[in-house]
Amino acid sequence: MGQRSATSLGLIFTVIAAASFGVITSLAALTYQGGGSPTGLVISRYIFGSLAVGLLALGLRRSFRIDRAAILPMAGVTLGTVALGAGYLSSVFFIPVSLAAMIFYTYPMMVAAIAPFTEGTPIRRDLAIGFPIAFLGIVLALGPTFYSLDWRGVALALTGAAGATTIFIASARVLDRVDSLALAFYTNLAGLPLIAVILLSLGSFVLPETATGWAGFTGANLFFVCAIATMFIAIRLAGPTRTALWFNLEPLVSILAAAVLLGERLATIQYVGGAFVLTALVIASQSKEQRKTDPTAP
Questions:
Q1: Where are the domains of the chain?
Q2: For residues 208 and 215, what is the distance between their CA atoms, to the nearest angstrom?
Q3: pTM reported for the whole predicted model
Q4: Distance CA 281, CA 130 (A)
Q5: Which runs of consecutive H residues, i.e. helices, occur in 36-150?
Q6: Angle, nearest 10°, between helix axes 71-91 and 3-33?
Q7: Which among 21, 157, 185, 277 could disulfide-bond with 103, CB atoms 3.0 to 4.6 Å apart, if both were Cys?
Q8: pLDDT tens, 247-280?
Q9: Separation CA 237–CA 242 (nearest Å)
């Protein structure tokens, strides 16, 4: 497969992963409305994810071999998944899904900022434009309701963003040594005891009590398996920076799902803030694509 074909296929997997992750947050909120707890959902997701991805890898006869050089970056991916799972999905227990999404989805810019140091590429000038725009968007999104927001939700969403950044950066250093499905299996399996200790110390393991809650619970687990498997494939084929930047589709799906499934509505200024964040991500992704097609581009 040529590089261009691999990149195109990787972007298809990126769209699938982004859409899957985008729906999960609203399904998590439905789970909590139906009596379930963040602890119950996240721990169950790790158990179900490990089993489902492991069986899928076995069915496809994928290799479970681990290169010794891959152990350290795999530990980074595991810690990233723990921070993401404990942070982002728990944040919507305290703040609206749409606002949690606007905070969380700053992580593509974090990946783009760190990647030059981990991949040995020059710092990009478009990021100098993108960062102020993204920051202004977050200020606009949080400003009208900042004092009424639960600080725990904001902190958890930021923790999830840091976890997602770690996943993208660390997985790019391991996917040439470990199969993508095997990586998803091992990181979920290794992350299970860590996430269980953290979350059980903060809350109880409670499953949903209503049909709506169980629908959200089941859907969140199924979409998680789809998202985690396709995300690692996308990173391997398209690279961490391009994949992360194309994940700007994810907040659009999250906000749309929150409107359809939860009836959430934001103030106009908050939609403007979200548009600023997305604009910053689009500027960065388009600039990168232009440099790929034009070798003389700065």
A1: 3-124+151-266
A2: 9
A3: 0.73
A4: 7
A5: 38-59, 71-91, 97-104, 107-119, 125-142
A6: 40
A7: 157
A8: 777 777 877 788 788 887 767 777 787 788 777 7
A9: 10
